[in-house]
Amino acid sequence: MSDRYAAYTRLKFDYPADRVLRITMNRPERLNAADETMHRELTEVWRDIDGDPDINAVILTGAGKAFSAGGDFEMVQNIADNFETRARVWKEARDLVYNVINCGKPIVSAMRGPAVGAGLVAGLLSDISIVAKKARIIDGHTRLGVAAGDHAAIVWPLLCGMAKAKYYLLLCDPVTGEEAERIGLVSLAVEDEELDAKAVEVATRLAGGAQSAIRWTKYALNNWYRMAGPTFDTSLALEFLGFTGPEVQEGLASHREKRKPNFPPSTPI
Q1: How far is it, in rounded angstroms, from Cα 50 to Cα 245?
Q2: Which CATH superfamily is domain 11-211 in?
Q3: What span is annotated as the signal peptide, if there is one (predicted)?
């Protein structure tokens, strides 16, 4: 294993094929929910991969039966309660999106089980996204009581259209892997037992292709995302403004108590 990945603790690395690096989000006991360490590592790893001369393609997946169960509740509480944490995580959330977009190496995501939060950011921004048919993709921001920031505004309307994006982002309804493929939110949906092998197959093809042509094609296509940068920046700023308000406290409490939230009926907005 390259020394450049030795310091990571929440991400596990292996090489399933020649010049293919597989990243596994590794908190299976918490369904790979992103705590502060994983959130930071998911932000930083794409720069290391971009500079790794031995890697041509990347797979991102989760350990066990889940891809990623979203943000760790303790981290969410710290964001709401502490300005320093809020400012730091805002910067990480911004950099996570732009680092995935700007990473020159093609990224393949392999998602099963729940796919939420920071993991979902990288999963849907991956160049080729593969899901198990029974996977559950959920953007839970408004259910938590904050605006749909992270990746949502930059990528959902482009992938599945504004009507579907608004439906799922405003209501937080889950999208199965099969439905996600149907509406264009992901590249492929396969049976769960086929997921890992399919991701390796696709990544191997990418790793063996014409590298400058593949990387330049990715760069050009990702200008669609770069053009949406101001939209993304606005959504992320509004999400983190929401962390200072009362709705997120109720949303977080309802998650912890496993009940329906009782949000205030009105807002000055």
Answers
A1: 38
A2: 2-enoyl-CoA Hydratase; Chain A, domain 1 (3.90.226.10)
A3: none
Residues 6+ apart with CB under 8 A from 257: none
Q: Where are the domains of the chain?
A: 11-211
20-25: strand order across its sheet: 11-17, 20-25, 57-62, 107-111, 128-132, 188-190
Q: DSSP states of 76-122 as a string?
A: HHHHHH-HHHHHHHHHHHHHHHHHHHH-SS-EEEEE-SEEEHHHHHH
Residue pLDDT, tens place only, 51-63: 999 999 999 999 9
Predicted TM-score (pTM) of the model is 0.95
The CA angle 27-32-37, to the nearest 5 degrees, is: 70
Do residues 50 and 35 lie in contact, with contact meaning Cβ atoms separated by under 8 Å? no
Q: How far apart are CA 46 and CA 50, in angstroms?
A: 6
Q: What tens digit of pLDDT does each residue of 224-249 get? A: 999 999 999 999 999 999 999 999 99
Tokens of 259: 């009940």
Residue 52, pLDDT score: 97
